Amino acid sequence: MSIAASEIPTVADFARTFRRIQGEIHKVIVGHEQAVEELLIALFAGGHVLIEGVPGTGKTMLVKALGQALNLSFSRIQFTVDLMPADITGTRVIISGDDGRREFRFSPGPVFCHILLADEINRATPKTQSALLEAMAELQVTVSGTTYPLQPPFFVMATLNPIEMEGTYPLPEAQLDRFFFKVRLNYPEETELVRIISTTTGPELHKIEPVFDSNDAAGRIEALKYLVREVIVAPEIEQYAARLTRATVPEKSKFIRNKEGLARDEAVNRYVSFGSSPRGGQALMLGAKVCALLDGRANASHEDIERVAYPALGHRLTLNYAAEADGIDPANLVQKVLKSVRDMRGQ
Amino acid sequence: MGLIAGQLVRVKRRLNLLAAQQMAFSVLGLLIGAGGIIVIAAFILSTTHFLVLGLLLVALLAVGLPIVVVRTTRRFAAFDRTATIADERAELNCRLSTLLATESEEKKHALWPFLIEDTLSRLDDFRPDRIEKRRVARSIYGFVTACVIASLAGLMTYSARRHQEALRKVLKSLTLQVDPSEIAPSDNPSGDSAQVEGDPDTLRSLAERLEAANQNSRGGGHDTLNQLSQKAKNLASNLQDRLTGRDLQDTPEKVKLRLAQALGDKPPDEGVSEGDNDSPPKPKTGQPQPGGAGPGQQRHGNKDSQQQANNEPGPAGSNRGTPPSNSPSAKSFDSGGPEGPGTGDSPTPGAQPGSTEEASGQSAGGGSDPEHLMGPPDAPSHKNENFEIMIDARLSDRSPIASAQPYVPPKVKTSLNPYQHPDEPLDRGTVPAADRETIRRVFER
Q: ipTM higher than 0.95?
């Protein structure tokens, strides 16, 4: 997608728009500031987000609020065991024409939208889950041998319920890897809970004002995404992101040839089966670029990389049984990896 | 971009200047401090401790200097490192390093102009004095401390030198008249400032003993480690002497070890050392003073072999040429009763070589009757090899100062028991050959 130079927003525009969307979302979402920011970072970086949280913490509300603020088309799919792939992508149906002739026509599924909420994605079968893979990765779906492109911006937000795991199908690593960020929604704090109760039980409900016009919302968002990719990155920062990504790979991994620059943290070697894929490094860099723009800079820095390290890498670490037995949280591992790479940087 | 680059050059210059200072101060501080400590240690530590400290310091320097040099060399900043440092210290979030890294790219990013403007607007944030506030490296504190230590060492050396100079003015020469039996191989004089005089027989005897001792030491040199440690100690001792100014290598003084004649037939009559005539007059040992000489000066009651460890040049030395038996001091010493010989700090028996007629009543130095109760003295049977006494003679300023009062041993007279029979002087016999080694070991201890 090429954008004319005159249409490229400025760094200040980016930050202003970002903050405005954030503000609109927070009209209905109390707390979860970090989750909302990470959600928007993923959106402008062109990724998809996996939202994990216990029921009632505002996952669906968050996605709806984002759709309203961006003034983009919005679809919601409730994933269940009997959901079929065609229920997501669409299918060919027989339609009678005006002349009486019947023909197969493609009926687009809910995936044909700008913002897709895949609610409780782990309740669908792997076959259905994988139907999202092509759409998320390649922005297109193929039905009966015909490929249908999706309109950008395409943003998938999948929610994951960590409880009631019976009868669920945990997402395979390959599908997890396709999510740009994994955002965790924690229980609200007491003050936040008070505000939630007061704002949602009163007679007046807050209404979200769209930030963009419906006509040019997609174009504006694409322009902002283009600006993100224009952020200048020094080779040193790229090396830092690469080093951080490689540091998540355990030394014992048989898929690694040169072990130089690998994590020297013992916890990674002990608890991680598989480290982050190169997609993790891409997510780090794109997220860092968004952070730089938010900070009013045209260049990425080490701090930007570190700021997005957990949402970008946490879900890409495949932990082993020892980690499960010891109750190891991926967040802790990412912190250890960060520390080890910082030490290397200090040297 | 030129403005930014110029500012960076200034920052780099300042950083590197500081690094150079740090290197210079650290290296000089280490060297000067170590030197100062060595000199101070030479004054206050024993040879063994001085040796250990010296080795420790050498090891410390051998390890520390390369580390300091490597560390400070790393502090020298190239252009990109300067940008990184400026980014960190001015919290520029990699603006400068990104600019430098991407400046050479042909295709500029769309945000390149913004990056330059943004950095230019922060030009004041990375001024050299903001990036590096110090003009002088912190290591100057170490350097100053080292200089203080060195000054202290210099002061100590200076005062010691002055002290030595004062001594040299007083002590032009030193003549020690020693009995050859007291000379052990370890007394082998070395250096230009020591001279041994004596009759040919005595010198030959001494040479033989030295040779025997050398052979013994060569034959017994199984323990190489001991030899090495001894050598190291000698080196440390020499260095210590040199640092403290105690060495006499280049001093005009001469130490003469005058060996009395082997058989003690006649006293040496050339008791004047070379510098005697130039020396200022000093209290004479021949003067009628009670006790005659201090305990360190008159070691034996025997007149002939009386050791004139006399630090006094000039007339005092001239007087030594006269037979000591004529001097009142010798007489008073003889009449010192039991204390007389006791004032001598040598355990040598009273029988010493000397003239026969002048040794009457004095050969039995251990007797209790100063009035010749012991009868006529034995014919002096000089046994050159009876004893070997280690002598460690060093210049001292205690007694030879004109104003100083020599130590006068108190006279103690004890009346004899009236029923006591006069002691019969015992004939001096030769020490059995089997006991010689034992006796030698006892006195060497």
A: no
